[in-house]
Amino acid sequence: MNPSVKYRKLSxxxxxxxxxxxxRCDDWNRVKVDRGFDPARYSNVTFSGEIKLQExxxxxxxxxxxxxxxxxxxxxxxxxxxxxxxxxxxxxEYIANYNIEDGVVIKNCxxxxxxxxxxxxxxxxxxxxxxxxxxxxxxxxxxxxHQAYIIALYRHRDKAIGKLEEMVxxxxxxxxxxxxxxxxxxxxxxxxxxxxxxxxxxxxxEGAISLNEGxxxxxxxxxxxxGPGVIMDHFIVCSGTIITESTLIDxxxxxxxxxxxxxxxxxxxxxxxxxxxxxxxxxxxxAGPYTVTHHKSTLLIAGIFSFMNAGxxxxxxxxxxxxxxxxxxIMERGSKTTSDSYLLWPARIxxxxxVMGRHYKNMDTSSLPFSYLIESNDESILVPGINxxxxxxxxxxxxxxxxxxxxDPMKIDKVNxxxxxxxxxxxxxxxxxxxxxxxxxxxxxSSSYTYNNMLIKGPSLDRxxxxxxxxxxxxxxxxxxxRLEKIRFRSNNDLRKRLAPERSSGDGEWVDLAGLIAPQRVxxxxxxxxxxxxxxxxxxxxxxxxxxxxSYYDWEWTWSCERLEKEIGKPVSEFTAADVLxxxxxxxxxxxxxxxLLYDDARKEFNLSSRTGFGIDGGEEVKKRDFxxxxxxxxxxxxxxxxxxxxxxxxxxxxxxxxxxxxxx
Length: 665
Fold this sequence. Notes:
Elements: E1 8-9, H1 12-20, E2 24-25, E3 31-33, E4 42-48, E5 51-53, E6 59-61, E7 67-69, E8 71-78, E9 81-82, E10 87-96, E11 98-100, E12 105-113, E13 125-126, E14 137-138, H2 145-153, H3 158-175, E15 180-182, E16 187-189, E17 193-199, E18 204-206, E19 210-217, E20 225-226, E21 231-238, E22 242-243, E23 248-254, E24 259-261, E25 265-271, E26 276-278, E27 281-283, E28 286-287, E29 292-293, E30 299-301, E31 303-305, E32 309-310, E33 315-317, E34 329-331, E35 336-337, E36 342-344, E37 347-349, E38 354-356, E39 358-359, E40 372-376, E41 379-383, H4 391-402, H5 422-442, E42 448-451, E43 454-457, H6 458-484, H7 492-499, E44 510-513, E45 516-519, H8 520-532, H9 538-550, H10 552-568, H11 577-603, H12 620-631, H13 638-662
Parallel strand pairs: 2-4, 3-5, 4-8, 5-9, 8-10, 9-11, 10-12, 11-15, 12-16, 12-17, 16-18, 17-19, 18-20, 19-21, 20-22, 21-23, 22-24, 23-25, 24-26, 25-27, 25-28, 26-29, 27-30, 28-31, 29-32, 31-34, 32-35, 33-36, 34-37, 35-38, 36-39, 38-40
Antiparallel strand pairs: 1-3, 6-7, 13-14, 40-41, 42-43, 44-45
């Protein structure tokens, strides 16, 4: 509200005009108006408590082109401040204890009220991952996936977690009020009961049944939409989010650009950037960016996910023993489940793993990324690294940036979309060494190997070692070429100076903080600063996450350089042009080999069996023509073309660097 507005008492003639229009008030002295007040715009209104009204001169025109002049009619208004050019009409019960800003439209609603002092969803504890509350996260207006990840999963840093919770409590207290706010240009139509809800600018609420204790952090660039049949209790909803079609929400944080609809149900869960949930159910889940579940009978429970797609009927169980639902699951970024899949918690599934079938044993595949986990005759079979050759994996990595729905200039979650990063490549190094160790212990001629309640067949193990090495060569080569691009080198000394990292922060282990990929030591340093009091505000923590995200590529080279030294077998200070040329040749081979595998995988979508169901009422020629019209030609497919272009571009890039480095004497 504009604090500079000067209010005055009603004149006698204005009171008479109001009463002639059916308006009532026990004490007109408690009604204050501004200079441009027009009593003719108010009819059949009961005022009570402290009332402040500003001028109404405009009209509201809806999407169908129907215009209604601003003002208040057929309503009871208690203890409210109403801004300029507001339209309120047909309120069944009342609007109480609200500041209503300029341009707001409220039509055909039951009751909108603030009762007692409210923090509007801030400070609410969400029992994520562990239903009994052992990993609860206190939500607030700008909670990021990264902050929530630390609070939920870094319980061993109890002092830092305590300080973070104190910051959230302080913020929650600072915004608590006995007055709610409906911010400018919001639309609230046909809603039944809204209690203790802060409604952000340009929000759209249509047909909601009940909203209780929460915030809709909408903005002009990216409005929030709450649709028909929605019931929400104890929540925070961020900009750009759509919740509609009788969705049920209880104790949830819903981040930017999310869509929940088609009777979805969620409780004690956190959803971050661009998540989507339809038909199914979520209970105590940590849904990191791009967690998607589309189907009925799909239950996600007590797990952490990100960049994940849940197949129809996917299910997990967190009741392993009799002490209650205390078990949790971790599915690292990019994992998928097929239809009717099942996992028994506790379990940990490595990055970009496809889970097929039902698995009744606890397992840990975290050191074996890009795998298939398959069930056959009640046996869990692991195929390491095979997802690296899947064209579907590449397609997923390409589509995520394009499906970022966030239009808010301030993006809360810092999302790193890289398929290959120090985080996933570290896992490949671990996977390669693990498979070699398994093979050496069990014997090189074994037909199958057992690992963590899973079976790995001999050929799959050998293939996994080969695929991980290919992925490692590709990533390290990418980093090397990026480091050396557009520079002319005259000597090996010039080369070594460029290769030497400027920063040390990137070495060691890396972690994925639910979308933000960063060195573990940087995260530990942040927690140290929180514990010491050096960092004591939520705004400063947000800035630290922003700086981590911004520094990714600088730190990536530090990590890559460390790994290159181990792969080549000498420190970077001793590298020569020959070492670089050898690595680039390995990189070229890896890139081309992987792209050819992807090319062959894509071809499967155009083979004879894929044409089944085409040309329904014709022979073979009709089937071919029908398939061509629907699916197109193989060579002209966008994904296939992209693979071919990638081979040409990377070959040219490698050849260009080889030519430059070959001149060094």
